[in-house]
Amino acid sequence: MALLEIRDLDAGYGDLQILDGVDMDVGSEAYVAIVGPNGAGKSTVMKSVFGLTTYMGGSIEFDGEEISGLGPSEIITRGLSYVPQSDNVFAGLTVRENLEMGAYTLDGVPESRVEAVFERFPILEERQGQRAGSLSGGQQQMLAMGRALMLDPDLLLLDEPSAGLAPDLVAEMFDRIDEINEAGTAVLMVEQNAKEALRRCDRGYVLVQGQNRHEDTGRALLDDERVRADFLGG
Amino acid sequence: MATDTETNTLVAFVRERAVLIALGLFVALLVADLFRKLGTGALTAASLAGFVKDGTVLGLSLGLAGIGLAMTYSILNFANFAHGDYITVGGVVGWITAFLVTGLGSFEAQPLVLLRASSRTLGISVTTAPVAIFLGLVVSVVVTAGLALLIDRIVFRPMRGQRGIALLIASVGVALAVRYLLVFTLQTGPRGLTAGQATPSWDLPVGGGSVTITAHEATLAVLAVALMIGTHVLLRYTTFGTAMRAMADNEDLAQVSGIPTERVIRTTWLLGAGLTGAAGFLIALERGALTMSFGWQLLLLVFAAVILGGIGSVYGAMVGGLVIGLASRLSLVWLPESFIIAAAFVVMIVMLLVRPQGLLGGVTTV
Amino acid sequence: MSARVDDGMAAVSEWFDGRSDAALLLVLAVGLYALFTGVSLVLGYDLGGIVNTLRRITFLSAIYAMLVLALNLQWGYTGLFNLGVAGFMAVGVYTMGMLSTAPTTNPPGLGLPLPIGILGGVIAAALVGAVASLPALRLRGDYLAIVTLAFSEIVRLTYRSPVFETFSVAGLSLGTGGSTGMSLPTNPIRILFYENSQEVTSPPSAFGEAVFGTFEAIGVRAPVVEGTAYAIVLLFVVAGVYALLRRVGNSPFGRVLKAIREDETVAGALGKDTRLFKVKVFALGCGLMGLAAILWRIGGLASTADFRPITTFYVFVALIIGGAGSNTGSVVGGAVFASLLFEGPNFVRRVVTQYVDIGIGQTPSTIFEAVGPLASLDVTPLLAYTISDVNVSALRLVLLGVVLIYLIQNRPEGLLGHRTETAASVDLSERPGGEDR
Amino acid sequence: TGGDGGGSGRTIKMGLLMGVTGGLSNLGPPIRNAAQLVPQQVNDADTDFEVDVQFEDTATAASQGVSGGNALVNAGYPMICGALSSEVSLQVANQVAIPNGITMCSPASTAPDFTTLEDNDYFFRTPPTDALQGQVLARIASERQGHSSAATLYLNNAYGNGLSAGFVDSFENEFGGTVTASVSYSEGQNSYSSQLSEALSDDPDVLLVVGYPGSGVTIFRDYYNDYSADRDILVSDGLQSGDLPANVGRSMDNVTGTAPLGEGPGVEFFTEQYQQVYDADPSGKPFTRQSYDAAAVLVLANAAAGENAGAAVRDNMRTVAQGDGQEVTPGNLVEGIEMAANGDAVNYQGVSGPVAFDEAGDLAAATYEYFEFTDSGVETVETITP
Amino acid sequence: MTTTAPDSDDAPADESAATTDADADAPLLQVRELEKSFGGITAVDGATFEVERGTITGLIGPNGAGKSTTFDLVTGVQTPDSGQVVFDGTDITGWRPHQAANRGLVRTFQIARELDEMTVLENAMLAPRGQVGENLWRAVLPGVRKEVVRQEEQLREQAWETLEFLELDHLAEEYAGALSGGQRKLLELARVLMIEPEMILLDEPLAGVNPTLEEKLLDRLHSLRDDGYTFLLVEHDMDVIMNHCEPVIVLHQGEVLVEGSPEQVKNDDRVLEAYLGGEV
Ligand SMILES: Nc1ncnc2c1ncn2[C@@H]1O[C@H](COP(=O)(O)OP(=O)(O)OP(=O)(O)O)[C@@H](O)[C@H]1O
Ligand SMILES: Nc1ncnc2c1ncn2[C@@H]1O[C@H](COP(=O)(O)OP(=O)(O)OP(=O)(O)O)[C@@H](O)[C@H]1O
Ligand SMILES: CC(C)C[C@H](N)C(=O)O
Ligand SMILES: [Mg+2]
Ligand SMILES: [Mg+2]
């Protein structure tokens, strides 16, 4: 049984329906990517899993339990973490405080996890006293990742983690994600850097206008002519 | 061209500092004039000391009343215009309690509850009825906090995530409703609370004259400082404080980080409104009288204090309160009485223009 | 061919749009008039009383509509949260008063002709608005709200100060009247009816005589006739202000204002001098507020009691009722607020006292006396207590608060709902010229 | 609702316009109560006459007074009993009564301004002008208390300005004293310590405070916090509130004051009535007697006029209260109304004495009480006739 | 009430794009010794470079190198501590953003900032320079308003064309707040195109844009370049930089590390180490 099972999900914002019968599976320790054109509803899938959209039907099961009715603070304790697409750091807090907030649900802040994050993103250690809002775009992205890793989740939702990163960091970010994944955390990722994402993931979904369009292994999607033509730019 | 640029940046530099420099000069001028006035006897040391005392007492009242406002301001990101009426509620319920505790048995209940009983015959003061005053303080804290939670549940909670201005408008509605429900039940008109003759006071000799400090002024000062320090410690040395700021910053992200946002908000109201209730009770104690709109009348000055100190900074609220209090009283040295409130507002506006983040604050709301 | 049809459609929809606003306002006016005529009849007013009631409703609605329109420009369009409305109103009124009241009255004025006084008042309010907007250049949101509120209090306290009760500049004596206030010049509508319009005791002119005579015959007294004529004039002024602001909004100028409301940095980066726009909006809006206040108080008293922050809140409530961002909504909000929320409760009280017989001296003076008898199922004391004038005025403000909360929670877009008044001088709803590539 | 002339019954319409909230929330209600005794008396009596009253609160604010006045005019009331605060009366007279031709009779507005008001004779009042009270206060300060320097602290409105100016004029010119400071204040502030310090900066022997209880409480609290309880303080009618020491929270032995107090034939009857209806004693409550009288005279004048028309009421205001007609007192007011309606001459002798209006609509005669604050309220020390 | 049009500022508006200037050979943008620090952090540290007319110049560098800050300094969103910015022969150091924009120099924001409660079409029509209707009196007074309406009609058509090109035309009447992340980026681009400036500074315009659309956009950049526009482009996607930009400037720790053709830059050891994730 998959860790995360989305079945026939309808969701949207207020009266506006965006997702129309979306199905998705993320096995435990799997690495899944969602790609698709702008506005397809990729971010909406992620937000729906985290209870941030208007639920309109279908089911979302995590670890065999229905989570579609729960709020984010409940969901996070079950082992999911989420890095939103934008606005993903506390701009007024220092870098360190941002990380501490990532571990808010724990009793104390585990110093070892902070260390681990610093190791992965040394710039954060250097800037730990700086207000997050004044970091560069790329630095903020790293901080957001770091914050989500503080809980050592079972499933990590990443909304365009490589956007705005310099090439070396893009590669590094993907490597880190691989590592995280290899260490046993399942990853569900939305990426516009579709080629790289599909190359690395186990399974990929192509989402168009709120519906599943294609679904296969990453490799297969990369090789699929229709997918290439429509979404990967030749 | 190079020199052009240099002048450009120099101009910008000077322009940025010019206001500050001008302000500094202005204050220095005032201080110099103050000494001149003292020297020539146009102003006696005793009356200056009187101004300072009045200003300090007012300042501590404002500071104390401002902490709650600063807390809710930073967390919920809106200027709560009902805050003044929370002050009033604190004063009213606290004093009804004090009246009942002192008077029940020897007086009729109704005038006690309506705060209509003669404060003279009741004879309440810190020395004659410390228990009544203590209980009044406790009740004012509890009831005001409860009221704030209730109002949050009914009014503000359904509006979570809306822009600050929408919440501000709702709070104006709350302010009107609360104030005039008080008026509806208790009617207008000032109420005397403490017994003047039973209140000890001390004359401190200053220069040729003296300054009178009453026990109630002293009580206000001591409790205000104690409560401020307590709050600071609470916020500074708990992760709760950081969580509060995180929420103030980005509520969505706080949510997905697993911060129980509702609980943080409730705790903030509880603390903030409790302090506000206490402030209302103590201010009424010091003044010895209250009206159903005394909190509202204080509100703008409290805002001034909080803004001056920097929204969201507890120390800022204290310092801001003192600055506003002293500025308004000391302005009497130069200005006619009718301008002292205006003077305090001018200080606030100038401050906002020169240093929008406040004296001590970092967080600004936009 | 299709282009033509499109054009025609656009014209029809535009016509209909304009028409539906007008129809809406008409329905509202008829409704309010019918309501208040009914209430007056219940209260047993004679024709004079009825006319006077409607006059007052019209007058207040017109004044509030103007104030709300002006505020809507600043807040609805530009997002500038100006809580200093009362202060700018005061500047308009007091300036007009000081310019135009006679040098012989107490406090003295300069005795300039009224048009100069009114113009001066409007300009002064606009200038003060421009000055007050300087903080607005740097501050947004609630900071601006607090600063403008403080500013209006400074204005009010200054006018109330005994220092300026009477003073002299350059040998001319002037005054605000301090907390006593100042009597303003007589209402200019009197020119129509009186020989010497400036004198309260002047006999009517021939025309006035004829008009008054006619109306007197059906029981409408001269002051009511005068006031009604004035109210009608005000309706035209409102129409003018409405047309002006509609044009301002539906133009590239209005578009920049909207952009400032949404994100000032972006507007700046796109080449708009946002500061200049904000100053203009403050000046224009505050000037109009000054004008509204002048028209409100002229012929009466300028008193600082009328310019306390509650007046500002009234205007805000009215704006929110109508719907921020919509000019038609502003007019609707002004009228609904003025007639139902502002005047309504007192009429309710009068009607209730008409039907419930509360003996003299039987009105309970405390809540206990009112609530106590409930135990024996006697509700009259509570009712008497509730509708006593003192408590009605308190409850009116409670009601105001509750309405405000309700609206902002459930209908923040106001009565009229989200009306997309697109900010352009041309129709944006369809792509003209049929792009049939 | 025109009148039908003769002696058969009709409805007399009288508006009451008084401040029972705001600055006069303490003094106002008893004054209103006193006025309401008149319609009560008539409507309870076995007569064909009925008095229709409508009450509007001015909240002691001019603007609200004007809108209340307009409401009364709308409802067709030809005469208004009120207002209380001089400031409010002045505005209501100018903006409502005079232009609409409504007769106004105030039971409490004492400012000197009304004597010279251009009112087409529509404004009357039952208390004496403060031009006299200022003299009385100056005499007390100078002769009775033996002071040579004084300061005034007065409410900045028509009443405060007028009375303070009258006192200053009399104290300096008639009694040769010096006034060290005259400081004005406005209602509703949280603290008056700065005004007090300005007024007392030269340490005058006596301080005159003119105002209403609304701010009086705060003023006296602030006074006792910072200044000696031994200095003589004089207050005017507006501060004759028995609740004051209770609200100030201490005894006010050093404070005395004056207020108009007429003594007419109807006092006993009035006191009894008041006691019976409201279960309270009207004595020590300023302007209650004048209030009854104002209402009574208006009703009589209306009866004599035979119609609910402002000008006609005005024209009868003087005739019903002077001359050698049948004497009418509060006790036989109802009979008086019937007589007046019949066209018989009547002469009303009120609770506060004769109510004979002069040219200006002012009272010809005046008496004042000199009062002090006691534990239970206020007590008259003596009555003074200037 | 003032009657000055917002564009009658000290920065004269230049209606047509590029090519009108006499000295056509001089670089369009010159940045000299620009410095800016925040507290202890020096974000831009003496950056000096030039952008030639009619190029798509790439600006790359590690995260935090100071690219966005440089944009802020050049366009007046922030004031430099020292240094100089010359645009088209004019020293514009310290100008306010609207002045720079009216002079023909505009930028997009790295994190898209859209005007939520305005429709997509209004967003687009907001941007153009020299709108007579931005003058309060002209917008209002009868008679002169005709001219405003005429101009508005033109702008409307132009806006539709631009939206069409960026595949946003089906959203023209939607509120901008309802757009997805990528659509917002497109709208931002639409707005600057509407200004018809001489030079556009693009801060990662392609991040988050779907690859198919990305290619179309790049095509459009080229054709605009051929029409005389000049671009300075910040982008992390090396494919884009390599295939579309010439020359490329590499910023590192606030100063220019290397400048040259894509080939040169790509093979420069320092760049490899500092930026590309050094297989040195
Ligand atoms: N808060 C919101 N309210 C209303 N509509 C929204 C909201 N957020 C997104 N939408 C709409 O939902 C649709 C899907 O948006 P979503 O953000 O999921 O797209 P996406 O696939 O992540 O696109 P991108 O790659 O551009 O980020 C879009 O049409 C967008 O306009
Ligand atoms: N307001 C500020 N306060 C403090 N430091 C700042 C501020 N703005 C930027 N910085 C710092 O300046 C440096 C340069 O930031 P900038 O945003 O210009 O980088 P960038 O090159 O655009 O990076 P990216 O590619 O990640 O967007 C960073 O280290 C950043 O943290
Ligand atoms: C009720 C009274 C105290 C009124 C006062 N005499 C005045 O004229 O204002
Ligand atoms: Mg997305
Ligand atoms: Mg950047």
TrEMBL record, chain A:
The species this protein was found in: Halorientalis regularis
Domain ABC transporter: 4-234
Record keyword DNA damage present: no
Key words of the record: Amino-acid transport, ATP-binding, Nucleotide-binding, Transport
GO molecular function: ATP binding; ATP hydrolysis activity; branched-chain amino acid transmembrane transporter activity
GO biological process, one term: L-amino acid transport
UniProt protein name: Amino acid/amide ABC transporter ATP-binding protein 2, HAAT family
UniProt-listed InterPro entries: AAA+_ATPase, ABC_transporter-like_ATP-bd, ABC_transporter-like_CS, BCAA_Transport_ATP-bd_LivF, P-loop_NTPase
SUPFAM superfamilies in the record: P-loop containing nucleoside triphosphate hydrolases (SSF52540)
UniProt family annotation: Belongs to the ABC transporter superfamily.
From TrEMBL, chain B:
A GO cellular component annotation in the UniProt record: plasma membrane
Coiled coil: none
A biological process term (GO) from this entry: L-isoleucine import across plasma membrane
Main localization (coarse): membrane
Record localization: Cell membrane
Keywords carried by this UniProt record: Amino-acid transport, Cell inner membrane, Cell membrane, Membrane, Transmembrane, Transmembrane helix, Transport
Membrane topology designation: Multi-pass membrane protein
Signal peptide: none
Transmembrane segments: 18-35, 55-79, 86-107, 127-151, 163-182, 218-237, 267-285, 297-325, 332-354
Any GO molecular function: L-valine transmembrane transporter activity
Keyword set includes Transport: yes
Family: Belongs to the binding-protein-dependent transport system permease family. LivHM subfamily.
Protein name: Branched-chain amino acid transport system permease protein
Organism taxonomic ancestry: Archaea, Methanobacteriati, Methanobacteriota, Stenosarchaea group, Halobacteria
From TrEMBL, chain C:
Name of the protein in its database record: Amino acid/amide ABC transporter membrane protein 2, HAAT family
Compartments reported by the entry: Cell membrane
Organism from which the protein derives: Halorientalis regularis
CDD domains per the UniProt record, alphabetical: TM_PBP1_LivM_like (cd06581)
Chief subcellular location: membrane
Keywords on record: Cell membrane, Membrane, Transmembrane, Transmembrane helix
Transmembrane regions: 22-45, 57-77, 83-102, 114-137, 227-245, 281-301, 313-342
InterPro entries assigned: ABC_transp_permease, LivM-like
Membrane topology: Multi-pass membrane protein
Pfam families: BPD_transp_2
GO CC terms of this entry: plasma membrane
Lineage: superkingdom: Archaea
MF-aspect GO terms: branched-chain amino acid transmembrane transporter activity
UniProtKB/TrEMBL annotation, chain E:
Molecular function terms from GO: ATP binding; ATP hydrolysis activity
GO biological process, one term: amino acid transport
Pfam families linked: ABC_tran, BCA_ABC_TP_C
Region Disordered, residue ranges: 1-25
GO cellular component terms given for this protein: plasma membrane
Record key words, sorted: Amino-acid transport, ATP-binding, Nucleotide-binding, Transport
Record has NADP as a keyword: no
Bias (Low complexity): 14-25
Family matches, as InterPro entries: AAA+_ATPase (IPR003593), ABC_AA/LPS_Transport (IPR051120), ABC_transporter-like_ATP-bd (IPR003439), ABC_transporter-like_CS (IPR017871), BCA_ABC_TP_C (IPR032823), P-loop_NTPase (IPR027417)
Residue stretches making up the ABC transporter domain: 29-278
Its biological purpose: Probable component of a branched-chain amino-acid transport system.
PANTHER family with a match to the protein in the record: CONSERVED COMPONENT OF ABC TRANSPORTER FOR NATURAL AMINO ACIDS, CONSERVED COMPONENT OF ABC TRANSPORTER FOR NATURAL AMINO ACIDS-RELATED
Family: Belongs to the ABC transporter superfamily.
Protein name, per record: Probable branched-chain amino acid transport ATP-binding protein LivG
